[in-house]
Design brief:
By secondary structure, this protein is mostly helical. A five-stranded parallel β-sheet has the order 2-3-4-1-5, sandwiched between helices. Strands 6-7 form a two-stranded antiparallel sheet. α7 (142-153) links the parallel β3 and β4. The model is unreliable at 77-82, 96-101, 663-681 and 746-768 (pLDDT under 50).
């Protein structure tokens, strides 16, 4: 593209680069300047100052240009004293030096000085050509715009190309008028930075952002590279309403705040007040929070709209920030004391307007500690519903609620709300500490069951699934007075824990679950059918036909479900995907996993993301998509590191290491899909002799107790070895282990190295 820009038609002497903020205008100008210098052109660069109009230096847009031309040997003087006159003429424009004020104010002398500057540019271009780069022209002072207009209407002779960039929505009518005329007359060319393609966007994004999230970031940024990079740094797009959710990285914050440097103190105040409010802003709330009168409010709105920080409808009745990055920067730049007061003012006004609890909770979370039962209860109500929308918000609200007041007499409910939000957000150790308090309180059956279910989830994610399984089994067998839904939830979690431990699932709980399925919400029905399918596949000689029937029943129920109806049952989506993969339908599995991953990432379920991302990596590796597999393994690692679980981190890092090792290196070559594609022939080389024996016996359909009897070891020892096998092979099921063994045995006889009998999996010593 730069070749075209530097080889314009003979009549073109102006290149106008237009676009919104952060669209790549400055990058395009920099590429143009580099190309010009490579061709031997002189390049002079000027940039307007980002300051309030009253503080902008006169002719500030051209200060850098004159510095380049006068102090860096840019002018080849043909007559003695010409450079001195050029300096004096420009000093006159600036009002510098003795006796120059009249030069600045006299229109005739001012025009003569403009001509002198034009001559200076002609001298600079006389032998090689000159590229004059002017950036951020929308912030130019009045004098700079007058000089620019002169140069556009009376272009310097010779090879001079004036390239300028500006934001049309912030530029003056004077600049638009002049540029429109020269574009219409064919003396200027108007271009915009090319729209960011999906491939270019991918190059800007770190590898630990999922494919679904990458598409979302690109869509939310509207292909704007500046917005995309900021979103990528935070791993998610900014929430359109609540800028306090995620702080901008320091580099992004500094860049965004450049746009605020031109604001007056009044503009700053109103922008910060708007940043804590719901969009579009209610003008009466905006006025109350910013503490300004009518005239000040209208003045500030004009200023913020003029700087393209606010957008307004035709009647100026509905206002919003031009983009979420500006909103977040305004919020983040405010001091903590000011925010406390502003949120308190907003909360008081919105409470009188009877707004919904979630909107009010965003302000009440800044409440200063003190006894306030009503506020505490409101925050807890908001957190209870909002934990499925954003786990981190729910944590903040619940913790604030328990800090500033009591729970309204329902301690078990309040504790369960906080514990569940902590578990979803990845604070699993704290979640366990909180939830264990429910058992010692006068909790109802419903709260006790919910607390037990969340405790089981936290234990599983901390690598204590065996403890969770025992607790759930005990509850199922001994808890009195359970309703069908509560009993089904306990049974489902029990089966899920057993599957997680790769143990055979007793037939009784699965059968009972299926008998209760009609009493459950649709999302939980999907989970029950998925668990039943996986339980069938895990049985010795499992029935594929039954598993397929269960996955098809789950798929029928799943198809019409909205994400909001499914989000409380994501564990079922994991098991459904794994069942589909083991049934050799990886494309279906990938669809389920991408849907679940998108929900978990968008709602900041940090303890859930590693499960979906890791499973997706395995399936993608099995279908021959190594790039996608490594990307999602990186996603799993990044998410696991945002939790306090060594188990999740170790598991995710193991998957990533196995995939990153690649074919022919240590670790697994072609990663084993969940019951689908095969591992490389040397995959089993990572196993010890005993582990290899157990792997072969697993592939022959032996249960853990049968393996223990055959090897004369305890069942616990078999389970320990099996856990190590899963980790080394980076697999998650017995079926995957069997696939590894089967494929390896097909390629060569890896079992001969340890004297293991390929038929029995036993060494000659063990057989004897």
């Amino acid at each position: 593209m730069t070749d075209l820009l530097l080889d314009p038609a003979p009549s073109v002497h102006v290149l106008e680069v237009t676009g919104g903020r952060w669209t790549g205008k400055s990058t395009l100008l920099a590429r143009l300047a580099d190309e010009a210098e490579e061709r031997g052109w002189r390049v002079a660069v000027g940039r307007a100052a980002v300051q309030p109009s009253s503080a902008r230096p006169p002719f500030g847009l051209f200060l850098g240009v004159m510095d380049d031309l006068l102090t860096r040997g840019g002018v080849e003087t043909r007559e003695e004293g010409q450079e001195e006159w050029a300096r004096r003429a420009f000093d006159g424009l600036l009002g510098l030096g003795e006796g120059t004020a009249e030069l600045r104010d006299d229109p005739v002398l001012r025009y003569q000085n403009f001509r002198t500057v034009r001559g200076l540019l002609e001298e600079a271009a006389s032998s090689r050509g000159l590229l004059l780069v002017l950036d951020d022209v929308h912030w130019a002072d009045e004098g700079s715009l007058e000089l620019l207009e002169h140069l556009v209407r009376h272009p310097p002779r010779g090879t001079v190309l004036l390239a300028l960039a500006h934001r049309p929505r912030q530029s003056s009518l004077q600049l638009h008028t002049v540029l429109n005329e020269v574009v219409r007359d064919g003396q200027a060319r108007r271009v915009a930075p090319p729209r960011l393609s999906a491939e270019e966007a991918g190059a800007l994004l770190p590898e630990d952002i999922s494919r679904v999230q990458s598409s979302l970031l690109l869509e939310e940024s509207d292909h704007n590279p500046g917005l995309l990079k900021a979103f990528a740094a935070m791993r998610l797009p900014l929430h359109p309403q609540w800028p306090s959710r995620t702080n901008l990285p320091v580099e992004a914050l500094a860049e965004v705040l450049r746009d605020f440097h031109a604001l007056s103190p009044l503009g700053w105040r109103v922008a910060r007040a708007a940043a804590i409010l719901d969009e579009p802003f209610s003008l009466n709330v905006l006025q109350a929070v910013s503490q300004v009168d009518d005239e000040e409010l209208h003045t500030a709105i004009d200023e913020l709209a003029g700087q393209d920080i606010f957008e307004a409808d035709a009647n100026a009745r509905h206002l919003r920030f031009s983009n979420s990055l500006l909103r977040a920067a305004a919020h983040q730049s405010a001091g903590p004391g000011w925010l406390l007061g502003a949120h308190a003012r907003a909360a008081r006004l919105l409470a009188r307007q009877r707004t919904d609890d979630v909107r009010l909770a965003e302000h009440l979370q800044f409440q200063i500690a003190g006894e306030d039962s009503r506020t505490s209860r409101l925050l807890l109500d908001a957190a209870a519903g909002h934990r499925w929308t954003d786990a981190m918000d729910a944590c903040a609200w619940a913790e604030t609620a328990l800090t500033i007041g009591d729970s309204g007499g329902d301690e078990a409910w309040a504790t369960t709300v906080l514990g569940s939000a902590l578990a979803l957000s990845g604070q699993l150790g704290r979640s366990l500490e909180v939830l264990q308090r429910v058992g010692g309180s006068a909790a109802s059956h419903a709260h006790a069951v919910e607390a037990l279910l969340w405790t089981a989830w936290a234990r599983r994610m901390l690598g204590e699934a065996d403890v969770a399984e025992r607790e759930l089994a005990t509850a199922v067998r001994s808890a009195p007075g359970l309703g069908p839904v509560e009993r089904a939830e306990l049974l489902a979690d029990w089966v899920s824990c057993t599957l997680h431990l790769d143990r055979p699932v007793p037939a009784e709980p699965v059968a009972e679950l299926l008998g209760l399925v009609e009493a459950l919400p649709t999302g939980e029905q999907v989970r029950v059918h998925a668990l039943s399918a996986m339980a069938g596949l895990r049985e010795s000689g499992g029935t594929v036909a039954r598993a397929r029937a269960q996955t098809e029943a789950a798929a029928r129920l799943l198809a019409p479900l909205r994400d909001d109806d499914l989000v409380e049952h994501l564990d079922g989506l994991i098991w459904l995907a794994r069942a589909e993969a083991e049934l050799k339908r990886p494309e279906v599995a990938i669809g389920h996993l991408e849907r679940g991953l998108s929900m978990a990432e968008g709602r900041r379920f940090h303890s859930v993301v590693p499960l979906f991302a890791g499973a997706l990596a395995r399936v993608e590796s099995g279908v021959g998509d190594p790039h996608g597999a490594v990307r999602h393994a990186s996603v799993a690692v990044a998410a696991a590191r945002r939790t306090d679980s060594p188990y999740l981190r170790e598991r995710s890092e193991g998957i990533h290491a196995a995939l990153a090792s690649g074919p022919g290196r240590s670790g697994i070559g072609r990663f084993t899909v969940l019951g689908g594609e095969v591992a490389a022939a040397d995959a089993l080389d990572v196993l010890s002799k005993r582990e290899l024996q157990i792997a072969v016996l697993v592939s022959n359909g032996r249960t853990n107790s049968q393996i223990a009897r055959a090897l004369v070891v305890s069942q616990k020892t078999v389970e320990t070895h099996l856990g190590r096998i899963f980790k080394k092979l980076a697999v998650a099921s017995r079926a995957e282990v069997a696939a590894c063994v089967g494929r390896s045995y097909d390629h060569r006889d890896p079992l001969s190295r340890t004297g293991v009998d390929a038929r029995t999996g036993l060494s000659s010593r063990a057989v004897s």
